[in-house]
Amino acid sequence: MEPIRSFDQLTSHLKSLNKRKRIAVVCANDPNTEYAIARSLEEGIAEFLMIGDSAVLEKYPTLKKYPQYVRTVHIEDSDEAAREAVRIVREGGADILMKGIINTDNLLHAILDKEKGLLPKGKILTHLAVMQIPTYDKLLFFSDAAVIPRPTLQQRIEMIWYAIHTCRHFGIEQPRISLIHCTEKVSAKFPHSLDYVNIVELAEAGEFGDVIIDGPLDVKTSCEKTSGDIKGIASPINGEADVLIFPNIESGNAFYKAVSLFAYADMAGLLQGPVCPVVLPSRSDSGLSKYYSIAMACLTCKE
User: Fold this and answer.
1) Comparing C-alpha atoms, which of 116, 168, 114, 119 is closest to residue 141?
2) Residue 198: is its pLDDT beyond 90?
3) In the prediction, which pLDDT does 63 show?
4) Which among 75, 91, 190, 300 counts the fewest CB atoms within 10 Å?
């Protein structure tokens, strides 16, 4: 499989598979979610179970064009709708879970329920996003901009494993993973930079398989070879990072918002750790971003 380097290539690849994934959507009561669902139906990559207020859902004219691929379950209470969607996924009735206009905390409460939720015991919940930046020649993954405030060493290791598995779905056989810091120097003043040393040692010992991991590096050195050359930094990343692992949620989230706003980057993102891909967009995300997140979920979910 050739590496998928753009969202257009992702859509083309999914269409070539000619298989619709089953997606349970909680409270799809907004135009941007409607757009994402309608485009997924038109592209032939998904079918939907809409869980929420059917009086609202049935007003969407686009959805009526595909009655064989859209079903609704009428539940007015959003918390109850979230629990029902999680139950359906647990019992094999859907491949993917998607958040509509419901508050994130409410949906996470159902996902993280120890008895009836979707996160297996011992698994770490985190978030992995991917962006297409007009000035970068391939897709760029990054974590964690949404869930873990300050990752521990073990959480960082799990974040890296999630990123590796996702990259392989995208056809990236040897992902280049950069451990992000404000400088290339290791310092006890920044404990995460000490974690980076341990992670690089694990990678060099083959712990992560066929992967290139280096850090600490800043974002520019990770993604632009010239920057590293000027600073005299020799790194196997070579300015061609596939994945950026941020030190904390503040830096990851600031990067996410800044690049989408000022660099006009297109975005997609999923929760990592649950038994199925979970599309968890911000309620203010564009319809296109939500569609790309659906496409990412369709590519990475288990057969």
Assistant:
1) 168
2) yes
3) 76
4) 91
